[in-house]
From TrEMBL:
Keywords: Kinase, Transferase. The keyword Transferase applies. NCBIfam families: PPK2_rel_1. GO terms for biological process: polyphosphate metabolic process. Belongs to the polyphosphate kinase 2 (PPK2) family. Class I subfamily. This is PPK2 family polyphosphate:nucleotide phosphotransferase. It holds the Pfam family PPK2. Residues 30-268 form the Polyphosphate kinase-2-related domain. It comes from Pedobacter metabolipauper. InterPro entries: P-loop_NTPase, Polyphosphate_phosphotransfera, PPK2-rel_1, PPK2-related.
Length: 292
């Protein structure tokens, strides 16, 4: 891993305190230079993606989690804009449907996993089940888990088992070739307020705002605690969390692109080499084409 990226890494086994991670940090680079570097990295990502597809041995899953207005949608749009859409799958998870509630909480996420050779992006993810559901434990009742039909029973033991389920799920994916990159876009409450006001004041962006956003904003301390717990419990050597400063969108996009490029580079993927007889067939076909 590039040395500059380790500062965003949530060290596996170490308790996370978000107050120790800046939301405003932008490093020594200026905005224009950062945008130019992002354009260069996009070219790298395009090449890496082509190799990922050709090798057909691994898939890559990028998980984005954040508070509202942290910039998930725009980060996905900008960082992934240089990739081939045929090799990408993007899912934005909303409130579970009635069908999804008839299955375990991981079911709908398992169905949305990227195939080998592809890059998948989950805008929100299975982590909602230990984030929003931890702030609103009454939502768990919709899952109709036999042992937890009463909200009062949803205790520390329940959350410990749920974190364990997530770790096991991700370990299983890793062992079967899926590389997981988990991004928490760390935005400040003040910056969220600024972006909410921008959405309200700009008619073109009104659709992005919901009155429920304010309701959830009032629960900011509870959400920060839920994120700290989730990241602490599920940042592992195989599937670590990156806590990316998100008050400056251009810098967050640059960091995300570097994390993705670094991860793909570490895979050391190569284009498949044809067997000798297959190569001989190609030579024969080439000769036919040249003579006709």
């Amino acid at each position: 891993m590039r040395d500059e990226l380790t500062q965003y890494l949530a060290t596996p086994g170490k308790k996370v305190s978000l107050k120790n991670y800046s939301t405003t940090y932008k490093g020594p680079i200026e905005k224009d230079a950062g945008k130019e570097e992002l354009r260069e990295i996009k070219c790298e990502l395009s090449s890496y993606q082509e190799t990922l597809y050709a090798a057909n041995s691994n898939s890559v899953l990028i998980i984005f989690q954040a508070m509202d207005a942290a910039g998930k949608d725009s980060a996905i749009q900008h960082v992934m804009s240089g990739l081939n859409p045929q090799g990408c799958q993007v899912y934005s998870f909303k409130t579970p449907t009635s069908e999804e509630y008839e299955h375990d909480f991981l079911w709908r996420h398992y169905k949305a996993l990227p195939e080998r050779g592809r890059l998948g992006i989950h805008n929100r993810s299975h982590y909602e089940n230990v984030l929003v559901c931890k702030v609103h434990p009454e939502y768990i009742l919709n899952e109709k888990i036999p042992e937890y039909r009463d909200e009062k029973k949803i205790d520390g033991k329940f959350w410990k088992k749920r974190y364990e389920s997530i770790r096991n799920f991700e370990q299983h994916l890793h062992e079967n070739g899926t590389i997981i990159i988990k991004i928490f876009l760390h935005v400040s409450k003040d910056k969220q307020k600024e972006r909410f006001l921008e959405r309200i004041n700009n008619p073109v962006k009104n659709w992005k705002f919901s009155s429920s956003d304010i309701t959830e904003r009032e629960l900011w301390p509870q959400y920060m605690k839920a994120y700290e717990d989730a990241i602490t419990e599920t940042s592992t050597e195989q599937s670590p969390w990156f806590i990316v400063p998100a008050d400056k969108k251009w810098y967050a996009r640059l960091v995300i692109s570097k994390i993705l490029a670094d991860t793909l580079d570490q895979l050391k993927l190569k284009f498949p080499v044809l067997e000798k007889d297959e190569q001989q067939k190609l030579d024969e076909i080439k000769e036919q084409l040249l003579n006709n």
